[in-house]
Predict the structure.
Amino acid sequence: MTFANVRVALLAFFLFAVLVLVWAVNEHRISKSNIEYASDYQVYISENENLAFHDILNLPQSDWQNLPQKSNSLSFGYSTASHWIKLPLKNQIKKGQFLVVNYSLLDEIDFYQVMKEGETLKIETGDARPFDNRLVKVSNFAFPIDAQSQGSTLFIRVKSSGTLKVPLYFEQYEDLIQAEAAENLYSGAFAGYMGLMILMSLIIVAISGDKNYLLYGVYVLASLGLTLNLNGLLFRWLWPGSPEWNQVSTNLFSYTLIYFQLVFVCRYIKLENSKIKVLSDVLKMLAMVGLLISLVPQWYMPLSKISGIFILLTNLFCLFLAVDYCRKNKSRLRGELYFAMAWLVMALGVSVVVLGVFGILPSTPIVNNANMIASVLEVFFLTTAMVCRFESERQARIEATLQSHKEAEQRVHIEKHMLFQATHDSVSHLPKKDVLLANWPKLSAEVPSDHSASAVLIHFEGYYGQVLSFGQQVAEAMVHELHDRVRRLLGNKSQYLKLDYQWSQDRAVVLDSLDLCLILISPKEYDISEELNWLHNSLSGPFNYENMFLDIELTIGVSKLHDSEKVDRVIRRAQVASKEASQRRLKVLHYHNKLGQDPELTGIIMSKLKMALDQGRLQLAFQPQVNTHNGSLFGVEALVRWKDDEYGWIPPDVFVPIAEQCRLITPLTAFVVKESCAFYQRFYQETGQEIAISINLSARNLSDEFLIQEVSSIIEKYRVPPRLVTFEVTETAIIGDIEKSRNALEDLLDLGVKMALDDFGTGYSSLVYLKELPFTELKIDKGFLVKDDKAQHNASLVEAAVMLGKALNMEVIAEGVESLEMAEQLAGYGCQLCQGFYFAKPMSETDFGLWYKGYDNKRNIIGTKHEITYET
Ligand code: C2E
Ligand code: CA
Ligand code: CA
């Protein structure tokens, strides 16, 4: 049983108690009625205000009317006439009895008793006179009649500005007091009940802040006020000395009630239908007008006549709205049914009251109290409806809160997941480099002062080779296996720092899927070679893939971390070492200054390079590219050369990456493009021959918006046909943002130039790039052609690469061709374009001119054309 049910049950119990009480009181009073209305009374109705009692006494008997047979009370409806009632006392009177006129808005009541002896007793009372005028201070009018009154005649003049009902009966004094006590009790119970409902509405307002419940409270208050007022209780309690207030108060309460009832119901059902809304607004306005007119005493009568009908109409209107609302809100039917029931009961109750007022229904206690009974029931239904709604709204709010809480939780969960995805390798879930960098301040603090830390870089070799030999799936599986091995092997090895304590316990981060980085700590001056050899051996064992045993080939580069050095830089050094190790076919290589870039040297080179560029001290070397099918010169690759006064020849492998770092790459490339075109122009002028030139672009150039403009204006200036220009780009230049790279490549292609993918086979990104980017030429890296014990393995790779390039409609050229055998072999695979020392080394322009003069076509024609059939 829920809280709401308990409340409903309590309400039901309370309602039951009140009903029983009302019923009991009414039963009690009915039993007191001891006058035969039809035979005992005679009535004379006079519009004449100034009629004296003397005139009444002298009326002929024929002027007095008997009441209809069926009448059991004196109910005259709305009438301002004076009603004279004649009641000859026969044997009804017992000792100590009162004649009681049941209260019903009687404005004036004059009581005359004409004794047998002719003596006349007169008492004036009524609502139009102060309450203190009453002989007995009870709600009804009571007039004492003693036993000696037998044979006397009673005359009662009643006059009302409202409804006129005069039920009369005789009652013992004790019974009168008892009845009064009972009446007080049930009026009190009624007031308490209504008060409780008002209190409940206030509590709900306090809890929910919903003003609807406040409107409801005001409505119940007006209803309570009206009922108490109609029962003369407010007069008695609040303004006993000011009877004129009684005229105003009834109308005030009635129209307030109507107004708030309309406002409350319209708000409650969220009235939207425009026509009905207009109607409700009109009704509200009329109620307002009534409320204002209530203050004009002359209008009291007509207004109070209208109020009964108006209240009835309003209740019927509310009933209509509630039923309509019920139909439309089947989901919350229970609460809305109570709401409709409330207005049904009230409409019925008011109907009964109105019919009673107009004398259509007899003036029985039930009819007289229909308003109060209906109010009790109505308020019960309304409160139940409100409690139901409050409860369902509360439930809805709780659900909404739970829902939003759940959503927030899910969002956090998703964000966490996304963060994990962004910071971890998608396949092995090893952390990425960013995790190491972010954690580094904490991690570095973990290195004891007598220990040193080294970045250990594990590089997976020959990814491309594996892709070409066994397919991408196998190569990926090997990478995955390597990651797994690292995780398994290092899980508990405390000499490797835990790099990812936020997400996992991993001791390795992924730089890209082929490079893993560890941080090894060891006592200072301790030789870690043995440890690294162990690491290499443990990780590089054969890998079983569908019963094939494949070697996982690794190189390890190591670099020591110096105090307060950026970890990023150390990792780069380890990477340089691993690259060198891979070139030298070493398992493990420690970084030393002669490898790659020495940070100190970098700075020096930067400033020297800038000066060299400014002073135009860079030169170009040209290396021929030969077509071995017909021996013709296919083109030349322009390679930048720099001789420093102090350091001598500095290889482009050293200074180009440095130029990339400090934005000198833009003037450098511009220089190379310009010099190459100038070379073309001179060559063409001297020989009358066109010559194709290949120019290297670096990664930075691709993100340079001005490059295209500059290139196009240089080409134009030196009148180089764009079809003779090929730009070479390495794979690493395009890995970053593939969309951006594609756009840059397409912009270049729009100039009419060609694009070559340089160093194919040294990278390790997905072959997808090849298909997605618009390259026209594939340049197989010299690394593939190295002659050693793996020659056979590499040979098949070269063949596969050639096939791949041709399948994608690309020119395939091999670089680093150092011998005739190699050239022959390549020709055998269908690759007839070659560049390498066998044909010529890179030469200065002058040397190239000489070389070209003595160039013998026939010398470089190799074998016959290799036929390749593709299976697509
Ligand atoms: P790359 O584009 O792969 O250039 C070919 C490199 O291979 C040249 O080295 C060339 O001298 C060398 N080479 C040619 N034939 C053989 C051979 O038969 N055997 C061997 N072992 N090597 C051969 P270089 O001139 O030292 O250039 C190194 C790299 O520097 C180039 O590699 C290229 O990436 C970069 N580079 C050179 N000039 C430029 C330039 O003007 N701009 C840019 N961005 N990069 C340049
Ligand atoms: Ca190149
Ligand atoms: Ca190359």
